[in-house]
Amino acid sequence: MIDKFTYESEEELLSFDSIDAYQVWMNASKKQSLVDLIKASFAGDRSAAGRYAANMRWQGNVRDATKPAQARDLTEELKDYFGTNTEEYKKSQGYKDIQQKLIDKQSKGTGIGDLQLEVIADKQGFSGLPKVVSSEEMDRLEKEGWTIAYRGIADSYFEDMIEFRAEKLAEQFRTGEYFAGVGTSGNGIYFALDEMVAQTYAGNVEVYVLGGVTYRSIKKVPSGVVVKVAIPPGTLMKEADFYKELSKQKDLYTGSGFNGEWHGESDIGRKLAAKGTKGVELSLSFRLGADKESAFVIWDRSMLVVEESTQTK
Asked: Is residue 299 part of a domain?
């Protein structure tokens, strides 16, 4: 499944493990999620059940989002965990854990993303659930200096058939499995500062260019959903620092090889998450030739607060 903020083909973007995992996942049976299991306790109200599940797990397993976790640099550990080359990787504990994660995901019927990044997120504690709050609480956080961002989610298709409804994917972000998307500025979870950009990726906006100017208009019948989140102040890497790290990353390539310290480090998203970076704010062009707009790549889902309501079709 390709992140909605990317435009390259699936073959170009997905790693070997993701492609392999994706094929297995497409043939896997779907089973009930945590929300489905407790839904009956809320008179069939899936939204209420989801909020309950999210907050119970958030309270029990995730730190207070106002107190950043002491993430650590996993570089040395990952040399042994993933190995330093492909041959070592295939024999590593990290590879075994990725296969187990694949089995877990296919049994629950959830999407397959960058599984290597996901196990790194597990090690850092980044895969914990966000806290689900009301729109009033989101307004309060914004006044207190938290950054508000949006993620547009459209229905996911496979061979012209809808595989996942946008509502299910949004619920997964709130209360389910951590999903690391694949993106052009490092793998991770992408958000936009401008809600209209997110609405575009949800399929709710028509975009057209007239006289060199880009215009957007809301469709009369929206087709996707938008998730609204709050990002704690002081938790994001600065853009200049990100590009310094990216420059170092490019210097590790010699010919057709990559001379990193651990297998999989070639993706800047994996590398930064392994070092304990929670996320970064960047200026990105979401479409070819379009102006750059503020966006966020998040690796630590557990630090986020998400609004309980979803703008749906």
From this structure: yes
